[in-house]
Amino acid sequence: MSDDFMLDTDDLQRRMDGAMSSLKTEFASLRTGRASGSMLEPVMVDAYGSMTPINQVGTVNVPEPRMVTINVWDKGLVGKVEKAIRESGLGINPQLNGTIIMLPIPELNEERRRELTKVAAQYAESARVSSRNVRRDGMDQIKKAKADGMSEDDQKFWEAEVQSITDAAIKAIDAALEVKQAEIMQV
């Protein structure tokens, strides 16, 4: 019975990749002083009776390094889009020009940069915790198989396999954090 045990390492890898993907999305929402259309992804607009992502009510462009523009398709939604941006907590003051909303991205001061690096570190830590939880699930499957009669050699092999997947995921998370922190601290 123990000979047919196969740990689904692809599933563990996919779940750890999901943690990394989630981390990248969270990193994209951090403002680095440079304009990016992805910083508006979490902003939802009350359009036509439902909460809608901002990119579904207008075209988001980055014409300059410190400017994001939104060309709202429906004139009636311009005020709602502006309100959603003001209330989003991004710290950006929208400027109206007809159906175009301009978002000048202010320069970040040193204190704010340090705060953002701490936030980035928190995001990375939650991704590490997610990866470790996936590792724990894999180890639990191995322990169950050991109780069902798996050999000690097989147990050590699968534990090493799970650990190597986890180590690779944590290394990728740490590398992404270093890149993001360097980007935030860059003036």
UniProtKB/TrEMBL annotation:
InterPro entries: Ribosome_recyc_fac, Ribosome_recyc_fac_dom, RRF_sf
Gene3D superfamilies: 3.30.1360.40, Ribosome-recycling factor (1.10.132.20)
GO CC, any one term: cytosol
Domain annotation Ribosome recycling factor: ranges: 23-185
Subcellular location: Cytoplasm
Parts forming coiled coils: none
Pfam families named among the record's database cross-references: RRF
Keywords in alphabetical order: Cytoplasm, Protein biosynthesis
Primary localization class, coarse: cytoplasm
Biological processes annotated in GO: cytoplasmic translational termination
CDD domains, alphabetized: RRF
SUPFAM superfamilies (alphabetical): Ribosome recycling factor, RRF (SSF55194)
Domain of life according to the entry: Bacteria
Gene Ontology MF, one: ribosomal large subunit binding
Function per UniProt: Responsible for the release of ribosomes from messenger RNA at the termination of protein biosynthesis. May increase the efficiency of translation by recycling ribosomes from one round of translation to another.
Family: Belongs to the RRF family.
NCBIfam families with a match to the protein in the record: frr
Protein name, as recorded: Ribosome-recycling factor
Species this protein is from: Planktotalea frisia
